Amino acid sequence: MPETGETPEHPEQDSRTSQESATTPAHEASARPDPSVPVPAARPTRVAAAWPAVPLLAALALWVYAVRNTDVSALDDYGLVSALHPTFWAGLAVLTAGFWFTVRDPRRRAGWPAAYVLGLLVIERATQAVLYPTPLYAWAWKHDAVIDHLLTSGGLQSADRLGDMAVYDQWPGFFAAQAALVRLLGVDNAAMYMAWWPLVSSVLLLLPLLLIYRTFTEDRRLIWTAVWLFCVGNWVGQDYFSPQSVAFALHLGVLAVVLRRYGRPGGRGDRQRQAVWTVLLSVLVIAIVVSHQLTPGMLVVTLLALAFTRRHRDWVPLVTTVVIFLAWCLTAALPFLSAAMPDMIRSVGDIGANVETGYGSTPTGTGAVATSWAARLLSGSVLLLALAGVLRQKALRQGALPLLLVAAAPLPMFVASSYGSEMIFRVLMFMLPGAAFFAAAALLPRAPAPITDAREPERGAPPAPARRRSPLPSLPPLRYAAWLSPLVLLAGTLAFVPSYSGKDRVNYFPPGEVALVRQLFDQAPDDSLVVAANRNYPLAYEQYWRVDHYWFLEDTRAHVDDIVRDPAAVLARDMAGVEAPARAYFLLTQGQEANSEMNGQLNTAQLRRVRESVADSPRFERVARNSAGVLYVLKPAS
């Protein structure tokens, strides 16, 4: 329409429009447009345009105040949940409310939802890095030791020298890259920055995730709500300093390339461009294959599922991935696979064993059980919302079928392996990108129509442009979504905290514990033996190429019972085979005790019996002790 005071370019069209308006009933003329369809709106004033900054800045201010007034020196079985200052929860509530009302307002710039998601990631993933003086997770410390090994040895080594730890030299991509980064930054080791890795790895997921979602819709409400749900539903914890964190981002990158650049028919020019994308895809797949064992399998089953759709019936991505995967498995990774293959074959089809947790992995105690159920309810809620979105949105279900396949493809992996009792968590994580999209559709009153596939052009003709399909919801729009949807979003956002941080008593190692273990390795001669209850302590794999380890809670249950009955005598017998000048050490720390108690290995009384028996035994000499643990050495036999 022309601006005020201008003459219409086509007077007859303007007249016809006026006549049609005159014959339109009053109640139809005054009816409000469908709120689900974004409409151009008048540009807001400068003050109104900056309004979304108010709740965002308020939430971040509440978060800063909360972390400055949170004490993590004495965590209980609820982990970080009970230690957090109440303003932390208020900040999350303000942030969620601000995001919900900002993302639904078509007048707001597209950058505001992105700012809110980044604010969410800071609150979710940076809180632990700010609060804890040492990095979390024993596995992160283990990966730091692998990087230190690469820097020390200057290259990869085989199983005859490293034993079970040689598996990391057979998938060295992540560790080699981190070793190069350590040298580039000029720091002593990766522990200098790995506490911030969860935030970094989570931000890396945003770009491929946005590219995937924008393939199927242009509505920013749906896109950013799906991204938000992905962030709060991704509680599994594989964002820590690990190969999985990078491999998952690369996995999403491959899916973004396949969904956006493959399966679109065209002429020779399209085939040439597709060859370029195939080169990029090959680079991403190689990076995945040389870094992680499970992610290539997840990628293969996902690409296989996509290949059965009409639009993505292009076998180049799948064949490329399979060839690269097999080439690595039959060469560099063959030593590990040859030894592990019998167990892998036995686990195929044993779904019950593949999903059970096993001894030492069952949450015990009120706090551990409560946080475990919070995580289950969070994942279950996202999956139920996704199912509701699939059922409610017929047009979206048809137009975004590839995303539905992305969500369902990991399910058969339950049949393949238990992956150390972690397969159920990995399946949930790989399902989440697709599930979050349909869950977001369930929260919106009426999701917009998806971007539909282009029709198959005639030979030699250019492809037809994509067009929108009119909304065809299978069910009426939800009348209660105006108040129920933001409450559901808030509940999921709050539930993320216990799901993600509820076991911080197990995962956090105070500086005293780090100092105690470092003192052990500073004095241990080559070929020494370190005996501990379990591997949940920092630096557990420090200098693993010259020092052996034995974690007695991972032995048979009968032997564990023998140790509990007579701790000092049985442990001394187990440690007696070490020959001088090597020495045998017994280490018991705060992290080991927390892991044993919260995961159903040994209770407090049994651990106290072990500790007191060793302390009273003349066979052991105390080397060091502080508030976080105690270290003994076995005296030479007389």
In short:
The protein contains 33 helices and five strands. It is mainly α.
Overall description:
Helix content is 59%, strand content 4%. With 638 residues, it is mainly alpha-helical. It has helices spanning 11-23, 26-29, 46-49, 53-68, 80-83, 86-103, 111-125, 127-131, 138-153, 159-162, 167-170, 173-185, 197-204, 206-214, 220-233, 243-261, 268-289, 294-307, 316-329, 334-347, 351-355, 366-392, 394-399, 401-408, 413-416, 423-443, 481-501, 504-507, 511-523, 557-565, 567-575, 590-598, 604-616; strands spanning 529-532, 548-551, 584-589, 620-626, 629-634. The N and C termini lie far apart (101 Å). Strand 4 and strand 5 (629-634) form a beta hairpin. The protein has a five-stranded mixed beta sheet with strand order 2-1-3-5-4, sandwiched between helices. The chain is built from 33 helices and five strands.
What tags apply to this protein structure?
single chain, about 60% helix, disordered N terminus, about 650 residues, mainly alpha, five-stranded mixed beta sheet, 5 strands
Q: How many whole angstroms does the radius of gyration measure?
A: 29 Å
Overall pLDDT confidence = 82
Helix content: 55-70%
Query: What ranges have pLDDT less than 50 throughout 5 or more consecutive residues?
Result: 1-42, 453-478
Number of helices: 33
How many β-strands, per DSSP?
A: 5
Instruction: Describe the strand arrangement of the main beta sheet, using strand numbers.
Output: 2-1-3-5-4
Taken as a percent bin, the fraction of beta residues is under 5%
Give the termini distance in whole angstroms. 101 Å
Shape: globular
* Major sheet attributes: 5 strands, mixed
- Estimated structural class: mainly alpha
